[in-house]
Automatic annotation (TrEMBL):
Zn(2+) binds at H226, H230, E289. The keyword Nucleotide-binding does not apply. GO terms for biological process: CAAX-box protein processing. It holds the Pfam family Peptidase_M48. GO terms for molecular function: metal ion binding; metalloendopeptidase activity. Belongs to the peptidase M48A family. This is CAAX prenyl protease. Its main location: endoplasmic reticulum. It comes from Amanita muscaria (strain Koide BX008). It is found in: Endoplasmic reticulum membrane. Keywords: Endoplasmic reticulum, Hydrolase, Membrane, Metal-binding, Metalloprotease, Protease, Transmembrane, Transmembrane helix, Zinc. The active site is at E227, D293 (proton donor). The chain crosses the membrane at residues 77-101, 107-125, 132-154, 241-259.
């Protein structure tokens, strides 16, 4: 009888912990007044085999064009675009012309950037074999650095023209916050979006217009304090550095001579190692989020945003530790009193 592998055992345990929560039909009490039923699209797609159908459809389409199953890279590209196209249909907004324009721009960007990226990504796996890690790491780092420059300067202006915030209490709060944190603010503007969030890039702060509409100035300030907390504490740089170190740490596991030396089949050593790395990376990410939350004490305003983004509300702590890079909303709400006490000490 085959020995139960450690990685499989861990997977069974955390899934058994999470499984009873799938039967919950009501949101947690803390979220009940704010909850709007939704989150049905992904479940429906899984239930009726939408992903498998999309893959088969991509194969049939290629067959009509004269390409066989050996063109798996091309089929993967078609598969991604089929998913992207069909998943966009249920999100039709009231402004059809605006939607169509953005959709066509999105397809153009996906074709121009996504196709070469996906093709190169899959080709590296095929070309480098078991030695793909350093090549793939170099490719990903290069692509990330290029996107850091291209996105705010080329891609974002295609979809949204930033509107400078007028002189107001909100603008004064943002400028005061930037000065307090010594953030080199150059431009502060809003853009059209259905998401309630904000972010920064370079010397620019961008606020989604729906956030301004749904929140009071102090609520918007709290969201920005969280985001700028990541900048102030250098978390994006630290996260990228840790990710590259993680890939380097995984590299020896792909060396067959090393595995044979210790008499390990490749799968048996990779599965538990990847599980440990995943938990460690999630722990680091969750720590960063906790610190940013404490930096801003924004949780009360995040209730609505979290529900509108259709995030999971019922989750077992062990399952969440393995799968979630961010603390769950329930965990953040429980930490709200201590976060409020931290606020005065942090000076936010």
């Amino acid at each position: 009888m085959e020995v139960l592998r450690p990685g499989l055992l861990v997977s069974v345990i955390y899934r058994l912990c999470q499984y009873p929560l799938y039967s919950e039909t009501e949101p947690p009490k803390a979220l009940a007044p704010h909850f709007e039923p939704g989150q049905l699209l992904d479940s429906t797609m899984l239930q009726y085999g939408f992903y498998a159908w999309s893959w088969s459809s991509a194969g049939r389409l290629l067959a009509k064009l004269g390409y066989g199953p050996e063109y798996e890279i091309l089929q993967s590209i078609f598969f991604v675009f089929i998913l992207y196209f069909l998943s966009s249909v249920p999100t039709l907004p009231l402004s059809v012309l605006l939607f169509v324009a953005d959709l066509l721009k999105g397809w153009a960007v996906a074709i121009v950037l996504g196709s070469p990226f996906l093709a190169a990504f899959l080709y590296i796996f095929k070309w480098a074999g078991v030695q793909f890690v350093p090549w793939l790491m170099a490719f990903m780092i290069s692509f990330q650095l290029i996107m850091v420059v291209i996105y705010p300067t080329v891609i974002q202006p295609l979809f949204n023209k930033l509107s400078p915030l007028p002189e107001s209490d909100l603008r004064s709060r943002i400028e005061s916050l930037a000065t307090k944190l010594k953030f080199p603010l150059s431009t502060c503007g809003s853009k059209r979006s259905s998401h309630s969030n904000a972010y920064f890039h370079g010397k620019h702060i961008v606020i989604f217009d729906i956030l301004v509409q749904q929140s009071k100035p102090e609520g918007v300030e709290a969201v920005l304090a969280h985001e700028l907390g990541h900048w102030f504490l250098l978390y994006p740089t630290k996260t990228m550095a840790i990710s590259q170190v993680t890939i380097l740490a995984l590299f020896p596991a792909f060396l067959r001579p090393l595995l044979r030396t210790f008499d390990f089949p490749k799968a048996m050593i990779l599965t538990p190692f990847e599980a440990v790395v995943s938990i460690a990376m999630n722990a680091v990410s969750r720590h960063f989020e906790w610190q940013a939350d404490q930096f801003a004490c924004e949780l009360q305003d995040r209730i609505t945003f979290h529900v509108k983004n259709l995030s999971t509300v019922w989750v077992d702590w062990l399952y969440s530790t393995y799968h979630h890079s961010h603390p769950t909303l329930t965990e953040r709400l429980k930490a709200l009193p201590s976060c409020s006490r931290e606020k005065e000490g942090l000076g936010v």
